[in-house]
């Protein structure tokens, strides 16, 4: 009898998780940091992508960096670092419940060197999340 109840519970839980997944990641990162694609901008003839991070955790995030590998239509790949601020310098924490835009800091990295229309795909290569000198406690989910 207990095995039947457990099986029904697992089936119901799986259905609930599948339904929540359809809401787009923000629900799944309820206790973490949800990052989604932001607006792309053209600056001096080069595309500058961005990401938008929502801190749904209970902890302030001191620094967040997502390295995105951009595949261009011509076959080249380039890695860009999108950051919440400068790692060394003035801290701009992302408070619990707050939203922040992650941008490429063109004074520290090479521009993409291509138009936004030349981007074929994006994928996450690395995530750095610091809070109070330690790794962030909450999970970081990214949809580049």
Secondary structure blueprint with pairings:
Blueprint: H1 2-21, E1 33-37, E2 41-43, E3 46-48, E4 50-55, E5 63-72, E6 77-83, E7 99-104, E8 119-131, E9 134-135, E10 140-143
Parallel strand pairs: 1-10
Antiparallel strand pairs: 1-4, 2-3, 4-7, 5-6, 5-8, 6-7, 8-9
Keywords, separated by commas or semicolons:
14% helix, 2 domains, mainly beta, globular, 41% strand, 144 residues, Immunoglobulin-like, two-stranded antiparallel sheet, 8-stranded mixed beta sheet
Explain how this protein is built:
There is one protein chain. With 144 residues, the chain is mainly beta. It has one helix at residues 2-21; strands at residues 33-37, 41-43, 46-48, 50-55, 63-72, 77-83, 99-104, 119-131, 134-135, 140-143. It has 2 domains: 1-28; 31-143, Immunoglobulin-like (Sandwich), CATH 2.60.40. It contains 1 helix and 10 strands; from the N terminus they run αββββββββββ. The chain has an 8-stranded mixed beta sheet, with no helix packed on it. It has a two-stranded antiparallel ribbon with strand order 2-3. The model is unreliable at 6-10 and 12-29 (pLDDT under 50).
Summarize the structure.
With 144 residues, this protein is mostly beta strands. It has one helix and ten strands; from the N terminus they run H-E-E-E-E-E-E-E-E-E-E.
Distance between the termini: 46 Å
What is the average of the pLDDT values? 82
CATH top level label of the largest domain: Mainly Beta
Structural class: mainly beta
Shape type: globular
Q: What's the main sheet like?
A: 8 strands, mixed
**Spatial sequence of strands, sheet with the most strands:** 9-8-5-6-7-4-1-10
Distinct helical segment count: 1
Runs with pLDDT <50, length 5+?
6-10, 12-29
CATH architecture of the largest domain: Sandwich
């Amino acid at each position: 009898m207990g095995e039947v109840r457990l099986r029904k519970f697992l089936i119901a839980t799986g259905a609930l998780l599948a339904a929540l997944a359809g809401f787009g990641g923000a629900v799944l990162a309820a206790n973490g940091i949800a990052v989604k694609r932001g607006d792309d901008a053209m600056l001096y003839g080069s595309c500058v992508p961005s990401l938008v991070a929502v801190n749904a955790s209970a902890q302030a995030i001191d620094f967040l960096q997502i390295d995105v590998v951009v595949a261009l239509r011509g076959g080249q790949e380039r890695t860009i670092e999108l950051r919440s601020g400068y790692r060394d310098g003035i801290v701009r924490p992302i408070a619990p419940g707050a939203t922040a835009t992650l941008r490429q800091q063109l004074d520290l990295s090479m521009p993409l060197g291509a138009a936004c229309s030349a981007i074929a795909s994006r994928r996450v290569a690395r995530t750095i999340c610091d809070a109070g000198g330690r790794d962030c406690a909450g999970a970081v989910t990214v949809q580049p």
